[in-house]
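We store chain and fold; thus.
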Amino acid sequence: MKKALTLLLVCSLVLGLAVSAYATEDAGIPDNKNFAPIEELAPDALADMFGDSYPYSVDYDWPEVKDGEIIKGTVVSSYSETGEHCWNNGTDNASCAFDGDTTTFFDPYIGGNGEHTFSWCGLLLDQPYELTEVRICNRSGQEKRISGAAIQGSNDNGETWHNVVYVDPKVYGKTGLLTNDYHVFTPEPVQEYIDANLEYMDESQADFSVYWMGTGSYSLYRYVAIESEHGDCAEIELYGHPKAAYVGDEKEIVTQEKSSANRFVDPIEYVGEDNAGEGDFIKGKVIGGGGAWSDSASYACAWDNDGGTYYDPASAGPACFTGILADKAYTLTEVRIKPRVDWNDRTAGAAIQGSNNGVDWTTLAFVDRPEALPSDAEQQWITKTVEGAAAYWMFRYVSIGFEAGTLADGTEYSAEIKHGDVGDVMLFGTPGEATLEWIIPGASVANNGEQYDEAAAAASAVGLNPVTGYDFADGSAGFGNEGPENLWDDDVTTKFCGNEFPAYSVVNTGSAYSISGLAIATANDNADYNGRNPNKWQLLGSNDGGSTWESIAEGDDTFFEEVNFTYFVTSFDASPAYSTFKFNMDGCSSGTFQVSEVVLLTADAAGAPAASGDKTEPITETFDDSAVEVRGAYRFYEEQPDFKGDCLVDVRSDLDEISGYNALGDIGTYLHNLTSGGNGYCCKMDTCVWYDFEAPADGTYTFMIEYVARNGAERGVDWALDDPNGTARNYIDLWETDAHGFVVSSFKTTKGPHSFYIYAPTGMDDSTLKSCDVYWVYVYYTPDGLQNSIITASAGETPAETPAETPAETPAETPAETPAETPAETPAETPAETPAETPASTDTKTEEKKSGCGSFIGGGIVVILSVLGSAWISKRK
């Protein structure tokens, strides 16, 4: 639904300017940071808002507002200490956001090197209103600038602010309407509004209630950018009801990190060129961040041992740096810096810093303002001694600025961050011990010099097989229906096309593949629109659902030619096996990228997954004990059985304590917490939970799962050992009970690290078998077998042959609904959730169960099986 945004009303209410002091104390977001409180504004800095006939968004084909009246008041704004309110103090001021004209816009004044806005626009009301809906129209041609903006309310004339709506850039960049249109925000989802967005995105993305952050009733509202985007907007409409003033609950806003004097959060470029020269200085490969002013003043110019060349950063301050990745970890002892010819003073405030992860940097040497060479001095080395430094792999030269002070001749100087140019840098030190946490980019690749019409032909040309069956998981925004999912659909007539960088697309392959090559296809009109091939791209792999990535291969626009519907292919050394892949693009020469297909290539036959261990079969043992039912290798109990010996892995299934992820990078997708702060979860779809442990020896191991599978629900659970992709899983058709039940089985494995996996049952989406509720997971080392480990056995009893009741015998008792399918339907209390409520067959049994401990009887061996991590969640195909 593309709205026709025609001009219905022209209103040019220009605010009078008034110079006022603004708050200098960094009160933090969402407080009043760098803005003038309202009472400090002169009366002529206020402008009356629109009249009674206001042509709001319903005139542009949006549905009628579901709840609330449009709120009218007095347009107000803020000013910097030097009087700036809007860009160039022009007509693009606060009134333009409330004039009913989507062709005019509010363009905030920007300060602080573009890191934060110094101005906002708002409405001063005659009484407090509680908002029920917010509509914001972004500026045409600058659509993304509302990313990171917020609607905030205040009841103390702007001294403190409270968030109501926040356009989270981490979400908006993927799901936001990047056309010049209204964005409609509500506290809860409204299906009619979701339907209006479906032309631009799928239903999982179209709900803008995710941006509603808080409640409250306020007499002053403002629109302000609290992130790094400029903050322009065309129109703002607030709807609500009068209500006594109150401050409501707010969700926490986590703003994006920004580079600072001791942090660099943007991508680091790996140049790969050696630093030059002869001597005992530290050797390494050139890296950099933030860019250079020109190609002739690149990162490498600071490390080429040539004082006539220089690195000139793209901007002042810590947003840009040049550095090296050393060939090993070093403890720095001396630094030599040669300033740029005729620009000596630009080394003032420069630092040499060390890092092992590329994000957190420690200053090892610093050039203060008095230490900088005069601008007219002859170029020479500035030498600094370093003492007591830790060992680092990565070193950088960066301008972090200096404090105000006085020179030896009495000349005072103010604080400043210089541009940071430098002629040469040399570092000296001794080898040390440290772990490099930064991912070294993969090998740069070129195509094989040929062009292909089909992916199969391209794969055959390099002797590899295409991987098929991609499951799209995540990606950045594209134009219209030209989104990131199109990269993997085996159709060159669709494409991923857009102008946001970095652009990326993530897929799961279900099984792990070792990648030995890559085929990439151009799109439909590369021949007509040149410069759309990515000039920097990477293929990354992950085995933890995308939490961490390892580079497989990288390339640039020389990999392609300006032709349509054409595959280009390359081969390279086989990578480790991965099950999640990311294709990332950092830029292109035209500003608009497009790629139609990405095909992963493997040496495995017919694109088969990398080899994994054989299926771990449960061990069937026949004996009598207190089990209420025995099904093959699985034994079911109403009460938790005791085992001989210590419980070696005893992990309570508390979703609130589980740290992990799935392929979307989220915790809890298709993994449902039974209650907030509860001690159980329900696996849905293709989600799994796993428990890492170290097996002390070759032998037999027992697992026990505490669960609830209510009568009539036909519930099950799948398990496997060392099988992250679930290809060799075993399924358990659970014995049904309305109380907590226990299923026990055993398997053989080898000494060393292993992972025990729990999945939603196989085929749960297309069969009657459904997932159960899991409460506790145990793993025991039982070298003598299951029969000799269970100490509750009672000879002569065979309850498995005569269960008191089975669901099939009592169809009338089968509930129509299955409460455990959703957390909301799970009873708050279940009999076995606490030890006190668990029936015990002996006086001490209940007390011992939840500790998972007992004495090791029989063998006389105490074995410790350590849990290496908590439970992990992963979405698998």
Q: What stands out?
A: The chain has a mean pLDDT of 77.
